[in-house]
Backbone:
DNA sequence: CTGAAAGCGCTAACAT
DNA sequence: ATGTTAGCGCTTTCAG
């Protein structure tokens, strides 16, 4: 038997006042006598009144909810990012509604429309690997609902963004390998429709050129950067007449695949082949050899994204000046890219 | 300039029909002529109508949202669990609202009340490490809102539960070490107010007794199971006149702390000390030596939790028969508990 | 099959 | 300082 839900009208009736007075008392509005305010709040607590925010949301046309869409929740980068968002959102009294696209464009679209129908006040997105058109975000732009992209952004869309400088990071990773004495540096990239991967790759290419090293087509493989992709890629490379002596991987997972394969067949890291990954996954400092990589400040990016989004929501003026916040990456030098002299 | 929001009344006016007819058409109710249904849907698509689910929710007193409260989002077990929940929820047309308690009771309470005010249809919870009273869940029980606990459950609360058999798992881990020839087995436990940790510990104790091994107080340390706790615990153990020759750790993180410390000071694993962890974290199969551990099926637990919760929501009868679903753990034997003959 | 009317629970004018 | 009234956008009787 469902207990009848308690509303402000119940309180109003009991105390012989109007519902609007109860509402004011509950929100300590300035226009309320201290006496009634106290009376109302005391009684509300006594009978266990809990506001129905759905009703309030409808009336105020504001839900204090923000949506997040990520490819996968259970990936360290994303779950740390979400954790950062949640921290700020909670502090500022927003709910966080989370969905994962599973890297499927169709699911991403459904999610985005569904979040719109839920009247979220703002949306934070990292695109699916498939996403090559952005019509589903128009709804938010047309209705002036703030939108922040991070990590995998929509380059053609005019919105706020939280990113790291992938070009610079790719450049730095590659330069590091060059400085360590490696001469034939290969690269495993993710899908280059995604800006993050094309930028990392371009940074890699630029670094080679700036150091008068040749850019060889056979030294660049594009994949989905899974562990198996790493293994397949290194096999490819080893078949070449002059295999590379170092590899800059688009992420740590593919680097892991390489490391495990090379260990299996007895090629030494970093003596024979040096490796740098990307992201600083939790395992990267724990495997043998430990993996050099670029750390992205996921949690802090989440905090920044939430702060920016909520700021946009709360001073809801049409921003003409979309911000692109570039967060710093950190090159973490570990064993996989040490030179002989370091060892 | 905010575009005026499009409602069913706009459609009704344009097509000279009643709003209720539009509503019926949009939900292909049985009582609607095919002609009007098509006309309405075509026009709705044409002008880009999107339903306001907040309004619908208020009217129907159902939000199709479920809440999840976990201690931390960015922990593999929890993010995988959430991922499983999200998968099922999406399939069944539910939103998932996620919050993290950060292991703080006060935050957990706030979250739970806030989710109630958001009129969620059901709630999935793993308790904070601090939680020792459960009054905040009464609200849900009194109002007949389904509640599913998982992992860190409330033993005194009569609800549905998704768990693994921690007692059995602790027993199995310990028995495994005994079978491998270890004689002096220590245990690092988490806070024993949490059933999962007390059960693992009790399984450990039972296994010792069943094998006629002494249960020594100085071989059992209770901590928060962080990496540093692992390091501190092993230091403690090594100070004893007869230090243990194996350790069953309440989680993989503390086991990691032990492994790194033992490697540093040159004690060999598993020759000198054998180790078994708990959870099969992503790093556990990658570190050296690889860590023996008990795998919990996090993603599948999330799926099960969501399925059970949604079933409860949709046939909203008062269940007198709360279910406790026990999911299987898997003992994964890796290098850290191999005996000499295995090596 | 369609329309009219009421109302989910709350808040924000506008009065007093 | 408080009450009255009118919705927010939708669904669901109840009539016809």
Residues:
């Amino acid at each position: 038997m469902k207990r009848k839900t308690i509303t402000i009208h119940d309180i109003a009736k009991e105390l012989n006042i109007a519902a609007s007075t109860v509402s004011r008392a509950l929100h300590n509005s300035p226009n309320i006598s201290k006496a009634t305010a106290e009376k109302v709040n005391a009684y509300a607590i006594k009978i266990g009144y809990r506001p129905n925010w759905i009703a309030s949301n409808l009336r105020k046309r504001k839900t204090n909810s923000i949506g997040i869409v990520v490819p996968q929740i259970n990936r360290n980068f994303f779950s740390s990012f979400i954790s950062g968002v949640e921290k700020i959102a909670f502090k500022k009294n927003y709910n966080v509604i989370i969905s994962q696209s599973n890297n499927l464009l169709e699911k991403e679209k459904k999610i985005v429309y569904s979040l719109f129908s839920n009247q979220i006040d703002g949306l934070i997105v990292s695109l699916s690997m498939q996403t090559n058109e952005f019509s589903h975000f128009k709804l938010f732009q047309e209705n002036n609902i703030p939108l922040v992209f991070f990590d995998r952004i929509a380059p053609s869309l005019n919105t706020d963004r939280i990113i790291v400088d992938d070009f610079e990071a790719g450049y730095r990773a590659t330069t590091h390998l060059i400085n360590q004495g490696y001469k034939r540096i290969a690269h495993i990239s993710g899908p280059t429709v995604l800006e993050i991967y094309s930028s990392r790759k371009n940074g890699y290419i630029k670094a080679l050129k700036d150091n008068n090293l040749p850019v060889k087509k056979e030294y660049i493989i594009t994949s989905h950067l899974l562990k198996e992709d790493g293994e397949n890629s290194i096999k490819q490379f080893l078949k070449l007449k002059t295999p590379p002596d170092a590899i800059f991987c688009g992420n740590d997972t593919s680097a892991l695949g390489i490391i495990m394969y090379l260990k299996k067949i007895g090629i030494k890291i970093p003596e024979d082949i040096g490796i740098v990954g990307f992201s600083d996954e939790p395992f990267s400092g724990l495997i043998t050899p430990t993996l050099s990589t670029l750390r992205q400040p996921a949690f802090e990016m989440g905090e920044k994204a939430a702060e920016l989004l909520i700021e946009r929501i709360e001073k809801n003026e049409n921003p003409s000046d979309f911000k692109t916040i570039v967060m710093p990456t950190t090159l973490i030098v570990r064993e996989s890219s040490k030179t002989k002299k370091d060892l």
In short: Residues 17-21, 24, 31-33, 36, 55, 57-61 of chain A lie near DNA strand D (CB under 10 Å from a C1'). Chain A has a mean pLDDT of 94. The first strand of chain A starts at residue 65 and ends at 70. The CA atoms of residues 12 and 19 of chain A lie 5 Å apart.
